[in-house]
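PROTEIN DATA CARD
Card holder: Mitochondrial inner membrane protein Mpv17
Chain length: 120
Origin: Papio anubis
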Amino acid sequence: ICHFCEGPVVGGWYKVLDRFIPGTTKVDALKKMMLDQGGFAPCFLGCFLPLVGALNGLSAKDNWAKLQRDYPDALITNYYLWPAVQLANFYLVPLHYRLAVVQCVAVIWNSYLSWKAHRL
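Structure generated from the sequence above:
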């Protein structure tokens, strides 16, 4: 599921960020990271976890309970990894390579998310 939706969604998000904040200074990278982690990451997780639950056949009630249980921990764990990755990514990496950098880190992140989403 991640590989089919994540690439186009994240790639499109980076293009939007570069339109809103076109620079590459340290301050610009910090602004992009704050928008990414304050807006995109919570929304993406909030969509990903219940989508996996639904695809695994959870009822709406069970899926909601699982989201309430797993979402806070997943978001906190996200904040241990992604702000530093994204700050470096937005500051050091040209736009057309950013998705590739994120996909390399995402191998580990998606393993965690898969474990989290499939845990009963």
